[in-house]
Structure formats: structure tokens, C-alpha cells
Design goal:
Order of helices and strands: HHEHEHEEHEHHEHHHE
Largest sheet: 7 strands, mixed
Radius of gyration: 18 Å
Number of helices: 10
Distance between the termini: 30 Å
Structural class: alpha/beta
Number of domains: 1
Shape: globular
CATH class: Alpha Beta
Strand order of the largest sheet: 3-2-1-4-5-7-6
Strand content: 15-25%
CATH topology: Rossmann fold
Number of strands: 7
CATH architecture: 3-Layer(aba) Sandwich
Oligomer: single chain
């Protein structure tokens, strides 16, 4: 992921946050039951996704945590509220997002730092962190393979990487959307998305090549599907072209999710002692 390039859809997310119309979480939510269209429901689903991933990390007070692709700082903000004496570091390629993150005040002896950094070239020393997090950002990186190698490098022995990621499968020849059209639309509105189809390898193989052991790999596809009703308002006819590249990509992502061409994964990997 280019150090100076953020996905186009963040222009909208940043403006809604600055207007006070959205919170710090910029990922899909997790639904344990169908939406009831109640006020604040999407925000609660987003909080639920954070709760699950933070639980997978099995944090303890006094640890060091790196959040790669930290967005507006929502995940580290939650950790900041739950734990004490933590070293929390968030990295992002977008200076605008880091500016928003700096509005978070450390609590209970915690230390928080925000840095501009490329996920494939992290500016931190080997063995610096007990935990590395990556929440719904990996598909934007230049290379998942390079990111896994960096995560393994910066983790201490016995440390954990916890992540969520989207992997797409190519629509077959009978699908309404051919793969080349899907790829162009996604990159136009949600890019950078260098490897939408996971051609470089699956998560577990890439992690193993970096020396990490997979200890949890959970399919959350159905749990994240309802979020599209909040992230992508429907057109009168969703087959029509909305014109705006970001909305076009959002509609396509919803179509891929609904038709079985998108998988959303929760995962945890450990660095051996």
C-alpha cells in the first residue's frame, strides 16, 4: 500500500466523522442475530466486531500492541479504555486519519503513539510487540505476504497476530459480473486492492511461511453480511450504474457478499516461543 495513498472511500468517512455523524470504527459490524433497524444498531455491531477480535488477542495489562491500518483509532481506543500500563501504537498511511487518532487521550498509565507507516515496511524494531492487530485493512496492503513477514518480525516470541480480512472468489462464467469488471470497480472505489482474489496464497500458508502458527481461523461471512444495508444504501434498481466510483464499488461488494463470492475471516496466529 503506497505510503501516501488511502482508499477513496475514506474521504467520505473522514468528513462524516468530522461532522460528528459517525464514530471511530471504520469496519463492517458483526451480527449475532438479524438487524432490527433500531437506532444505533450498526454502531453496536461494529463494537461487537471489535469485542470479538480484542477477545481473540487475549490481552493483559502492561502489554505492547501495534494496530496496523488503525483507521480512526477505534480499536486502540477500546483497548485504552479496558486496560492499563499499555504501550499502544497505531500506524496508517493517511495523515488525515492519524490526525483524528491523535484526539484520543491515554488513560490509566497507557502510552499511545500514532505513526505514518507502510504495512509492508514497518518502522519498528524486531520483537517489539506482544500483539499485532490488523482489522479489515489487509486487503489494501501492497502484499499480504510482506505484511505477514513484517508482523512476524515485530512480534515477540509467544506473541499473537489477530486480524480480520476479506477474500474474494472470481465469479464464474455464468455470473452477471465478470472478474475483470469486478476488479476494475473495486480498485476504482475501494483501491488500493492489489490482490482481490488472494492469488498470492491463503492466509494460513502465508503466515506459515513467515513462521507463524494459525490457532484460530473463523468464517464470519454471514455475520458481516447485514452491514451492507448501512454502508451501501440501495438504488431503486441496483443493476443501474450509480456513477460515483465509491458507490459503484460498494454495490459490487454487497453483490459479491450476497452471491457467495466474498469470505470474511477472523484469524489468530502465534509466534513460537
Amino acid at each position: 500500500m503506497s505510503v501516501n495513498r488511502a482508499p477513496r472511500y475514506f474521504d467520505f468517512l473522514i468528513e462524516t466523522f468530522r461532522r460528528g455523524e459517525a464514530g471511530r470504527r471504520v469496519h463492517l459490524g458483526h451480527w449475532d442475530s438479524p438487524p432490527a433497524d433500531a437506532p444505533g444498531e450498526f454502531a453496536r455491531a461494529q463494537a461487537r466486531l471489535d469485542e470479538i477480535l480484542i477477545g481473540m488477542a487475549q490481552l493483559s495489562d502492561g502489554q505492547s500492541v501495534l494496530d496496523v491500518g488503525c483507521g480512526f483509532g477505534g480499536t486502540l481506543d477500546e483497548i485504552n479504555a479496558r486496560h492499563r500500563d499499555m504501550d499502544l501504537v497505531g500506524v496508517n498511511v493517511d495523515a488525515r486519519q492519524l490526525e483524528l487518532c491523535r484526539g484520543i487521550e491515554p488513560a490509566d498509565g497507557n502510552r499511545i503513539r500514532w505513526e505514518a507507516a507502510d504495512a509492508s515496511r514497518l518502522p519498528v524494531n524486531d520483537g517489539s510487540f506482544d500483539r499485532v492487530l490488523c482489522v479489515e485493512a489487509m486487503f489494501h496492503f501492497d502484499s499480504r505476504r510482506a505484511f505477514f513477514a513484517e508482523a512476524a518480525r515485530v512480534l515477540r516470541r509467544g506473541g499473537r497476530l489477530v486480524a480480520s480480512d476479506i477474500i474474494l472468489s472470481r465469479p464464474d462464467g455464468r455470473a452477471d459480473t465478470p472478474p475483470f469488471a469486478a476488479e476494475a470497480a473495486l480498485r476504482g472505489g475501494y483501491g488500493p486492492w492489489p490482490d482481490p482474489w488472494g492469488d498470492d496464497g491463503n492466509h494460513r500458508d502465508l503466515a506459515a511461511a513467515a513462521g507463524l502458527q494459525c490457532t484460530l481461523y473463523a468464517d464470519a461471512t454471514s455475520n458481516t453480511l447485514p452491514s451492507h444495508r448501512y454502508t451501501c444504501p440501495a438504488l431503486p434498481d441496483e443493476r443501474s450504474d450509480p456513477g460515483d466510483p465509491t458507490l459503484r464499488a460498494a454495490l459490487l461488494l454487497k453483490w459479491l457478499h450476497r452471491h457467495g463470492h466474498l469470505r470474511y475471516w477472523y484469524m489468530r496466529f502465534e509466534k513460537p516461543l
